[in-house]
Design a protein that fits this description.
Blueprint lengths: L1 H8 L3 E4 L1 H5 L8 H12 L5 E7 L11 H7 L8 E6 L2 H8 L4 E9 L2 H8 L3 H17 L3 E7 L12 H14 L3 E5 L7 H14 L4 E5 L1 E2 L4 H10 L4 E4 L16 E2 L2 H10 L8 H18 L1
Parallel strand pairs: 1-2, 1-9, 2-3, 3-4, 4-5, 5-6, 6-7, 7-9
Antiparallel strand pairs: 8-10
Helix pairs in contact: 3-4, 3-12, 5-7, 8-9, 9-10
């Protein structure tokens, strides 16, 4: 009884994803504008900030200044940890030299089609890459956050089922993945699937911290968060105002889970998120200015 009482007092983890919000924008956002925005986010109290990526500038031109952004950030007054996305061992090696980065995020798709689109590797090749990234992280005192892309469905015609998600979770657990974020890549998740996966996987793998990286249309956000929360998920990715999302999504209304919706939901549930409302409002206003200028 005491164990569960302690668990319920643990704060909900909100991971803010400015990298996800910015990466698809064609005009290059000046480095100083990125720094100013991320600096505002660092004051809010998010558990982590997915701030940039160490990937090929040809693949994601917007993120080519990630190392420079990092060098300019003042991290002296924040409790937030930094997460960088990497797509291969070269990116992991580049990110690993920065002590300020705590997490290396690796997108691992259970869709062969999407994995080839995203990282130009097959699933089999990506498993080898993930193993190498886990070793790099271990040597550099970092943790890997694996994103299970197509975690809630597959629009590309590849086989998909909750059993397949379970099989891949088992494989990644055996490899040593400790943080696994189920990713709703094109907003296809339903409350039933969200509830089924989290309520089955969380008790089965107590050593893994499961997260929800949900994409949504404006009318579906509540039911998705509600299903994940009631199934035991305590870690959520979001982006202020829902900016960004998967560029492959055909529905223009499908974006990232709006962080303000996450906060309103967890406030209603009387859950602690460690978020400063005043600092969040300031960051929200900064987001409005930044994305109005460059979206």
């Amino acid at each position: 009884m005491f164990f569960y009482l302690w668990l319920s007092m643990e704060p909900i983890k909100i991971i803010e994803c400015p990298r996800d919000a910015m990466q698809g924008i064609k005009p290059f956002i000046p480095t100083e504008r990125k720094v100013a925005y991320i600096q505002a986010l660092l004051r809010v109290g998010f558990d982590s900030i997915d701030f940039g990526s160490f990937v090929s500038p040809k693949a994601i031109p917007q993120m080519q200044d990630t190392a420079e952004v990092l060098a300019r950030l003042d991290l002296s007054q924040t409790r937030s940890k930094l997460l960088a996305i990497i797509a291969n061992t070269q990116g992991a090696t580049l990110a690993a030299v920065h002590p300020e980065i705590q997490y290396l995020g690796f997108p691992f798709s259970i869709s062969e089609n999407f994995q080839m689109r995203n990282t130009h590797k097959t699933i089999a090749e990506s498993l080898i890459t993930l193993q190498e990234i886990l070793e790099i992280a271990d040597q550099s005192n970092k943790e890997v956050v694996a994103y299970l892309s197509m975690g809630f469905g597959n629009p590309y015609g590849d086989p998909w089922s909750v059993e397949i998600v379970g099989e891949w979770t088992e494989k990644l657990a055996l490899m040593g993945v400790k943080i696994l974020s189920l990713s709703d890549t094109v907003g296809s998740s339903t409350p039933d699937v969200i509830s089924y996966l989290f309520s089955n996987l969380i008790p089965k793998y107590p050593e893994i911290e499961f997260g929800a990286h949900l994409h949504t249309t404006p009318d579906k956000w509540f039911e998705k968060i509600d299903a994940a929360y009631k199934a035991g998920c305590r870690r959520y990715d979001g982006a202020i105002q829902g900016f960004g999302g998967c560029p492959m999504a055909t529905d223009d209304l499908t974006g990232n889970m709006p962080t303000e919706k996450l906060l309103s939901y967890f406030t209603a549930q009387k859950e602690n998120t460690n978020i400063s409302p005043v600092s969040f409002e300031s960051a929200y206003n900064e987001a409005s200015k930044l994305f109005a200028a460059y979206h």
